[in-house]
Design a protein that fits this description.
five-stranded antiparallel β-sheet, 2 domains, alpha+beta, globular, binds calcium ion, SH3 type barrels, 421 residues
């Protein structure tokens, strides 16, 4: 850690000094924005309090995405963070830099990177066990789980930034008692509480990434809701895994919280019990085991159309933590590249649904409602077993640790629109 993490550091952007702010000067997450309604090109910015500072203020012209910056690597990210931290803390810069500030509520935010490829993992062991138990009561966890960071290739084209409406998918579904499947709107629309790793420099085709170097290839972290149609999924997933039940939309937050900003919130890797094997050597590193985890609180909230009309606040459905991930960020990256597959700047790796060990920390409606058997009560008298049209699903996240400034991630939110007829 360094001077940019000093909890005593304050900014001349006053709103950043509010203890409730998600974007104090110790955070400095990066995104892509333009002024609402202005005929101007999207460009890189940094969130500070309730403002965005155009990166042009420090001489950086990113273009319409952060891919070049992601490709530049850790040394460049570190220099940029130092420059931004100094520029935004020393009040002698206020006059020179304030003309580059745009109020966040007057800005439109975009996907932070052009995402070439998106994979989704399954690192939440409590999610894997709970969901496994619903489908296979006597054999919840398949034997490969403790050895392989399970994942699949997702669809990059339908990754959308927070605020983008999500259209309920049509698809094939077949209830157990039906003789034949039918095509129509999913009736079991769900969210999945995940984080996304945004890839930095990446690796050349045929050249794996060693676990010791894996985090050099992670630009930062975003919130990720892997929307899922459970009824479509149940019918289509065998034998090749998730397909159209997942690829209709994935919502991410606009701000990339850098690995350097997350440094104070590192924690040990998931503690394996006696019957869980030590990872194979290519996935094992002492330092990664000691401090390769990240304590990131992860929450999902819901606000229905009726709650919005009645001006009721969103209801928190769950609160989990990334420390419950069975595999570390470094293990995910190393495993994905272990066969020589190349990762490119701006690629996105989803963690998988991160459920905690307790009932208030489950990362999907499937788990929270026992696959639709236990409805959740909402303020205003409604109930939910899955997500309905008009519902807004809002992911929020925060890191807090005694002796350090708390940092937030913004939001990954989307309102569900009816399926096309
Ligand atoms: Ca997922």
């Amino acid at each position: 850690m360094n001077a940019t993490h000093d909890p005593a550091l304050r900014s001349w952007v006053e709103s950043a000094n509010d203890p409730a702010s998600q974007f104090p000067i110790q955070n400095l997450p990066l995104g892509v924005f333009r002024r609402k309604g202005a005929k101007e090109a999207p460009r890189g910015g940094v969130a500070i309090g309730d403002q965005i500072l155009d990166l042009a203020a420090v001489g950086l012209k990113t273009g319409p995405n952060l891919n070049q910056l992601a490709a530049a690597g850790r040394k460049s990210w570190r220099e940029l963070r130092k420059l931004l931290s100094q520029g935004l803390s020393d009040s002698r810069n206020a006059k020179r830099l304030s003309r580059y500030l745009v109020p966040m509520n007057k800005a439109e935010l975009f996907l932070p990177t052009a995402i070439g490829d998106y994979s989704d993992f399954y690192t939440g062991i409590h999610h894997a066990v709970t969901v496994g138990r619903i489908f296979r009561p006597d054999n919840p966890l398949l034997p490969n789980y403790h050895w392989v960071p399970i994942g699949y290739h997702g669809r990059a084209s339908s990754v959308v930034v927070s605020g983008t409406p999500v259209t309920r998918p049509n698809g094939q579904t077949k209830a157990p008692d039906d003789a034949v499947p039918a095509f129509g709107p999913s009736r079991r629309l769900d969210f999945e509480l995940e984080l996304g790793l945004v890839i930095g420099p990446g690796n050349a085709l045929g050249k794996p990434v060693s676990i010791k170097r894996a985090l050099d290839h992670v630009f930062g972290v975003v919130l990720l809701n892997d929307w899922s149609a459970r009824d479509i999924q149940a019918w289509e997933y065998q034998p090749l895994g998730p397909f159209l039940a997942k690829s209709f939309a994935t919502t991410i937050s606009p701000w990339v919280v850098t690995m350097e900003a997350l440094e104070p919130f590192r924690c040990p890797a998931f503690e394996r019990s006696g019957d869980q094997p030590t990872p194979l050597p290519y996935l094992y590193d002492e330092a990664d085991q000691r401090e390769g985890g990240f304590a990131i609180e992860m929450q999902m909230h819901l606000r229905s159309a009726r709650m919005r009309a009645q001006k009721l606040p969103a209801q928190r459905l769950t609160c989990s933590n990334f420390r419950h991930s069975f595999w570390t960020a470094a293990q995910i990256v190393t495993h994905q590249a272990s066969n020589g597959c190349n990762l490119r700047p701006g690629d996105l790796l989803g963690s998988g649904t991160i459920s905690g060990p307790t009932p208030d920390a489950l990362g999907s409606m499937l788990e929270l409602t026992l696959a639709g058997k236990a409805p959740i009560a909402l303020p205003g008298g409604e109930t939910r077993v899955f997500i309905e049209d008009g519902d807004e699903v809002i992911q929020r996240s925060r890191c807090a640790r005694e002796g350090f400034a708390s940092i937030g991630f913004g939001e990954a939110a989307g309102v569900v629109k009816p399926a096309p007829r």
